């Protein structure tokens, strides 16, 4: 990894912290400082306070569980639908428009309906995550499956490969980089979907979305910012994991091409 990939984000992070501290300590008067507490106050009340930290981490873990289950289901369904659409043009014409419709549905309007239909606990929250994270998996996987070079298809035809062999040994390996790009997008979307579901589904173990709403009502800005930042950190970790996987896949593809 080049030093600039590490140094540049660190510089931006320090600049953001400095700007944040400047606004809190200099531009805001003491009576308005609760609107944007200084970074050290956020750390002291949101992370160093044992009770606040325990509450936030427990709620965040509940949200992460929902997001991971929803993401796994979205990956399985998205890859399956993309494979079906890649194998038959009529299937793509039949299914893809509804995938687009799924992406354009306003999630905030549909979430209450899921509560009416499926209840207000874990399963409904998972359904919301699947709904918001499914489309990137479908589109990226389908793009990757359809982007195989014609010459490679001709080579498999020359060797008499069947449709299953072509899919398993040519299309899916070639589509992996595009698929993982879709997974990276869907990982962040799953976290967002889980937090949105927390705002509506208030039965069962509270998630981070419900705690954000509680902190908003209490004007507990330090805890609210801590919950927001830790939620973003989880999304970043998912993104980095898939990015690492993507670089490993690209490296493997490069070795295969060189061979």
Q: What does this molecule look like?
A:
α3 (50-87) packs across α9 (208-218). This protein has helices at residues 3-27, 39-48, 50-87, 89-104, 107-118, 122-146, 150-158, 163-200, 208-218, 221-258. Helices cover 86% and strands 0% of the residues. With 259 residues, it is mainly alpha-helical.
Compact overview of the structure:
The protein is built from 10 helices and no strands. It has helices at residues 3-27, 39-48, 50-87, 89-104, 107-118, 122-146, 150-158, 163-200, 208-218, 221-258. It comes from Nocardia mangyaensis.
CATH topology of the domain at 38-146 and 177-239: MetI-like fold
Q: What gyration radius follows from the Cα positions, in whole Å?
A: 23 Å
CATH superfamily of the domain at 38-146 and 177-239: MetI-like
What percent of the residues sit in helical stretches (DSSP H or I)? over 70%
Q: Report the portion of residues in β strands.
A: under 5%
CATH class of the domain at 38-146 and 177-239: Mainly Alpha
Keywords for this structure?
259 residues
Secondary-structure topology with pairs:
Layout lengths: L2 H25 L11 H10 L1 H38 L1 H16 L2 H12 L3 H25 L3 H9 L4 H38 L7 H11 L2 H38 L1
Helix pairs in contact: 2-3, 2-10, 3-4, 3-6, 3-8, 3-9, 3-10, 4-6, 5-6, 6-8, 8-9, 8-10, 9-10
């Amino acid at each position: 990894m080049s030093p600039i990939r590490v140094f540049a984000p660190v510089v931006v992070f320090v600049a953001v912290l400095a700007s944040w501290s400047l606004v809190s300590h200099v531009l805001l008067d003491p009576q308005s400082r609760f609107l944007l507490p200084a970074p050290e106050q956020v750390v002291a009340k949101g992370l160093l306070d044992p009770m606040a930290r325990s509450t936030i981490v427990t709620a965040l873990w509940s949200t992460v569980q929902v997001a991971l289950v929803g993401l796994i289901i979205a990956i399985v369904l998205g890859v399956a639908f993309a494979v079906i659409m890649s194998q038959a043009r009529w299937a793509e014409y039949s299914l893809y428009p509804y995938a687009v419709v799924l992406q354009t549905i306003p999630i905030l309007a549909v979430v209450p309906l899921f509560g009416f239909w499926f209840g207000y606990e874990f399963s409904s929250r998972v359904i919301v995550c699947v709904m918001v994270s499914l489309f990137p998996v479908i589109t990226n996987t389908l793009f990757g499956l359809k982007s195989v070079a014609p010459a490679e298809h001709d080579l498999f035809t020359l060797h008499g490969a069947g449709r299953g062999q072509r899919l398993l040994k040519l299309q899916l390996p070639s589509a992996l980089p595009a698929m993982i790009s879709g997974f990276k997008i869907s990982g962040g979307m799953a976290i967002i979907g889980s937090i949105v579901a927390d705002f509506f589904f208030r039965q069962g173990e509270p998630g981070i979305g419900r705690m954000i709403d509680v902190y908003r009502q209490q004007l507990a800005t330090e805890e609210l910012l801590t919950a927001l930042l830790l939620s973003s950190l989880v999304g970043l970790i998912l993104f980095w994991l898939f990015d690492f996987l993507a670089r490993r896949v690209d490296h493997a593809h490069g070795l295969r091409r060189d061979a």
